[in-house]
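1st attempt posting a full record on here, be nice pls
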Amino acid sequence: IYVKSTYGGDSVHLGSTTPCQPVNIITGALIASVADATLDQLVYSNDAEVNNGGLVLNVTDSLGTATGWSVSISVANFTYTGIASNQPPIPAANLILTGTDTLTTITVIIAAPGSGSGSYAQILFIELNIPASSSAGTYTSVITVTTSTAP
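the predicted structure (as tokens):
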């Protein structure tokens, strides 16, 4: 973008033109993150259970290019912490984005070329299938958010 200033003059001053001065607009970043990932606390059961919850996906596009982008989420196995010994993890494939097959790796939002600038928040509903006889304790996973500047 260039700004040009022109003064047409008056009876005292002659008209003048100043040279164009560049105004640089630099690109920002494409940032995505997950906030408030929650699953309800459960009481132990010998039976398989489904634990419902949700997470909030936040995306900010300040690239200034309008080339489009996409955001994918992946999840790792849920590792066990507790008093039981040799408890296997809950497989990552047991975490399901409601309406899909699995959340192992999935594209969750796409901005087409010509759109996507600004900030967005999207609530994603999830289900964790707890295998029968999973030991009482804490199961922890890591959710990875990946951005791509191509839709």
